[in-house]
Structure formats: structure tokens, C-alpha cells
Amino acid sequence: MGDSPFHNRPEEWDLYNPLVGSSMLELGNKKNGDLVYKTFFRAMGFKHTSIDMNGLDGALKMDLREPLNLGTFDMVTNIGTSEHVSENDFEGQIACWKNIVDACDEGSVLICGTPAPGAWRHHGTWYPYPVFFEELASLNGFEIEKIYEIRQGTNRAAVMARLVRKDLSPFAMPGIGIYKNVR
Questions:
Q1: CA-to-CA distance for 44 and 49, rounded, in angstroms?
Q2: Hey, which CATH number is domain 10-180, 1.10.8.60, 3.40.920.10, 3.30.360.10, 3.40.50.150?
Q3: What are phi and psi of 84, to 5 degrees?
Q4: How far apart are CA 13 and CA 118, in angstroms?
Q5: Is the pTM of the predicted complex or chain greater than 0.85?
């Protein structure tokens, strides 16, 4: 994978495959060392939009607690971002997940990698269990293609999910399966 930001992240790359369509929304300004995801996907021909509160690495400076109004995308990625949104206010998590779902059209792929509950103790606040993604899919017209947990050392684990939007059900927040990490 040469200059790919996935050269040492095969489990994450597995979620992206197969790539779908030509447009991608990335939550965060994802990097692996000096390799910026935006640069990689643009070189592959994707119309790539990234958003982050910091506005770095070409990301639009936006708050996921506010409506994005960016339209829909063929692929939407949330790798290590949603757990940082709205540390003390669950309403901010609801707004974040609504933005994620609203950015997906029928046929869109949603890629998520979030800290597993009990792991990454000092990394973000909101950690979804696999059942969160199962309910998110059920309530919002998605089909789960992949869902699994990966270990990343002794104290780190992540829940990885790939979902495909099958119908445009109105957004509904899962009532189960999200853990508030107490730091």
C-alpha cells in the first residue's frame, strides 16, 4: 500500500473495502503519521470532504453538534471522532449521530471505528457497544455488512462497523449501547 495511510492498519482498510461511489465525508481530519486520509482518497479520485473543529489538514472547521447541511455522500467515515463530541451533554451525541445518518443517502456506506467500552480510558467520552450499531442500523434503514471488535494492545480496543443505507427512514437515536467513559 506504499504511501497509504492504511499501510499498518489492515483492519481499518478492511472496513473501507469495497470502496463505493465517488464522494466521501470524513468526520475528523484523519492522519496516520504524516499521511493524510484526504490526500489519499483525493488521489484515488474521490470528492473528499473532511470536517473537524480544528480545521486542520484541509478539513472544514465545523461543529458536529450543529446541522452540517452538506448534502449526502457515497461514503461517510467516523473513525475516532464521535467519541469526542459533546463530553458532558448527550444531546450533542444525538446531534452528531443525526448528522452522520443524514449524510447517508440510499446506497451510502457508513464506516465507523470507535473505542470499545472499557478501552482507551482517556480517549473521548462516548463509547458505543456493538449493540448500538445494531440498533442504529435497525432504526435508520441500514444493513450491517461488518461489525467486529479489534484489540490494539493491552488497554486498547475498537468497535468497527460497516453499514449500508437501504432506505431513508427518519433519524432515530438508539436508546441502548452507548457508554459514557468517566475519566
A1: 14
A2: 3.40.50.150
A3: -95, -10
A4: 24
A5: yes
Strands (E), the chain: 23-27, 31-32, 35-36, 47-52, 60-61, 73-79, 104-115, 126-128, 142-151, 157-165, 178-180
Instruction: Parse the chain into domains and list their residue ranges.
Output: 10-180
- For cell 468526520, the residue is 27
Q: What is the pLDDT of residue 50?
A: 97
Inter-CA distances, 50 with 10, 15, 21, 29, 56, Å: 22, 18, 16, 6, 9
pLDDT per residue over 13-43, tens digit each? 999 999 999 999 999 999 999 999 999 999 9
Within a 13 Å sphere around the CA of 133, how many CA atoms are in the beta-carbon half?
Answer: 28
d(CA 169, CA 176): 19
Length in residues, the chain = 183
What's the grid cell of residue 21?
Answer: 461511489
Q: Which three cell numbers stand for residue 59?
A: 478539513
Which cell goes with 38? 484526504
**Residue whose C-alpha is closest to residue 144's, from 132, 153, 134:** 134
How far is residue 150's CA from residue 160's CA, in Å, rounded to a whole number?
7
